[in-house]
Design goal:
alpha+beta, two-stranded antiparallel sheet, 2 helices, 17% strand, elongated
Amino acid sequence: MASINLIEAFQDFKDAENIDRPTMMKVVEDVFKTLLRKKYGSDDNFDVIVNAEKGDLEIVRHRTLLWKMEK
């Protein structure tokens, strides 16, 4: 259900602003990257993946785990 609303929102935004799909996708990605920078100070460890065809949005955070093994 939510994905249908996202697809409609993408289409409405695209039509209202008269922009092409790649530009629209970049705008949506930039919005989420900005929010991530505000919350975490950097967006270097995040990937934002927007699929307007399916209405999917995925945010992936990459982390490096370090541990010390005791002898």
